[in-house]
């Protein structure tokens, strides 16, 4: 800590031996009941909404530097990106859930090979097949929503994306089966998608158990009741995917080919993955977690912001009406019309998509990262292997970069708008918007997520208007991101329009 303090990096007050700043965080949480994220609001409050490039905090025995401004990202993602890598902390927390997937694995030859294979499975012809699956499920889901009339859009978009991603990963015949799930000592059956999503939240929650705060080296061991349930539930998911792999291998032995273009079939046919079922399982689970939650959060938040602003919604509908021959008409024909070429024409929708990711990024902080060698970043000497966390939410809300940063203004991504500039009228730093990070560790699902959003939104809005039921939420929607322990309820009514 003193090494960084001597360089002007501020650390939060209230440091205690062994506890670090944990006690201060607990006090802050009890006093303020933060709705965003305890760490982010703690940093914002401590620095009066203007945090420095780096700020320091210590979790028991672990030092962590938060990256709060874009100046450091320019070096981390570009000029010194070769030294930028994953820190083991987040990987240890989610080890039982995601194993050694490329999302948490350090950069090496195996990581590069796996990334190349998975990247190729998300582009061109295979992506087209996935988008066709997506259209089918969206049409089925929307029909169910229309019959219900009123839905919790947070829960329903999550369920829809779980079904879509599971179908893309395992094939439609396995899109959301029931598996065993243990909670508070009782075993019941829930859908695979719900199990995966809940497992993620509970795995993150276990980090805040007192015995792991004091002894972080015990992360690999699952000792408490919560730990045991996390382990049991993770094993149920793994066992189900392992059975699917066995079935596909048996079918291959009988027919000589793998059926379908789902991710699992793609991985089973690649030399990198052929000899390791566990490697395949890790990547399938990570694809589900990253894909379903990011897109579900973006769609839910977007529909809420549209319901709050008739002006933005009208502009979206005008763009759809201008570019889509079948918008407002037969939804089956509209689904056929929507393809990768057509959705590239959606300029205002893309502005709305980017603004949704900016104002409420699905991942408000990055997983833990580090430098592989001692380096100077933004004037601060950073030691090799020290943990860094990129404060994505703060970077998207720095007041010297964004005009009216707390307002939903899609025009800030239109180069012709005054909102495209900083409050001082200068060009905004290109690293002030990093929902998918950058450099060699940029999110592989970036293109998939954007294309999915552009396909799904016109289908959902066709002939229907989403109306917020709660008058308070019409003015201020509850904050929603992918790593919240408790998700908000946002009820919306579907009203048919001509």
Automatic annotation (TrEMBL):
> Record-annotated residues binding heme?
443
Top-level taxon of the source organism: Eukaryota
Q: Under what name is this protein listed?
A: Cytochrome p450
An MF annotation (GO) of this entry:
oxidoreductase activity, acting on paired donors, with incorporation or reduction of molecular oxygen
Q: Which family does it belong to?
A: Belongs to the cytochrome P450 family.
Which keywords are on file for this protein? Heme, Iron, Metal-binding, Monooxygenase, Oxidoreductase
The cofactor named in the record is: heme
Q: Which species expresses this protein natively?
A: Stylonychia lemnae (Ciliate)
| Pfam families noted in UniProt | p450
The residues forming the signal peptide are: none
KW Metal-binding (keyword) present: yes
Q: Record's PANTHER family?
A: BIFUNCTIONAL ALBAFLAVENONE MONOOXYGENASE_TERPENE SYNTHASE, CYTOCHROME P450 FAMILY 4
